[in-house]
Amino acid sequence: MTDKEKMPVCADGEHSHPEIVESVADRMADEEILMDVAELFKVFGDSTRVRIICALFESELCVCDIAELLNMTQSAISHQLRVLKQARLVKYRRDGKSIFYSLADSHIRTIFNSAFEHVME
Amino acid sequence: MTDKEKMPVCADGEHSHPEIVESVADRMADEEILMDVAELFKVFGDSTRVRIICALFESELCVCDIAELLNMTQSAISHQLRVLKQARLVKYRRDGKSIFYSLADSHIRTIFNSAFEHVME
DNA sequence: TCATCATATGAATAACTGTTCATATATACA
DNA sequence: TGTATATATGAACAGTTATTCATATGATGA
Fold it and tell me: How big is the CA angle at B44 (ends A70 and B56), to the nearest 5 degrees?
């Protein structure tokens, strides 16, 4: 090319499809909700947290039991539980010296069941 | 403390609950499946990819239309489509100069519907 | 066949995230 | 009340990731 003028990337009105774009934009969920969904999936998108959640599907557990179950340090588990707590996905109760965590929301099971179905084809 | 000896973190057999841990370990899904689930959620855990997926719920779209819809560069969209492609979540077809992307799997809708329900309380 | 243009890709950068290590907190129970 | 201990937290580090910029690729359609 003779000049610094760069090539168009899908010049408007020719190969782009403005009417489709507009129609899709109208029907899509609000930006804010999409951000929340991404944020939720981000929390689910870590194998440690997935393992914690799946463990809690089976039983409430104290921190050190989770650590033992996953063969990880108490600190690492505690940090991840904080993430789950901030996302309001787990709740906890004290019993003696231990603190027992459990899942806070039944939707989590539904979401994970769908994901399991997908993963197992 | 007088020595480098650190305190126990939930000494076995006392405050830990080995029978519960073992029982949960038995019932949990295989490690490999949990990794796949985490990997799937990781792909969903980005707002750009969530927006692309939700756009594709409404209609198949070419790359430049997605870029316009999301107000992002063609390159950024292309990079993210590659991630979705590698996860086998989208498929594509050529039509003239454009390449139209669409969702490859109906499970995605199910998973997202559950996530939307959760996010909207 | 050749120039064009939609799309793909590679390298670089900046921001983010998970674990570790060290230590603080706080509750139980002696 | 004081000590032991289950849990929480902060800082640091390493690994990962999303975007940008520049450029390659490759099919179209003239």
Answer: 160
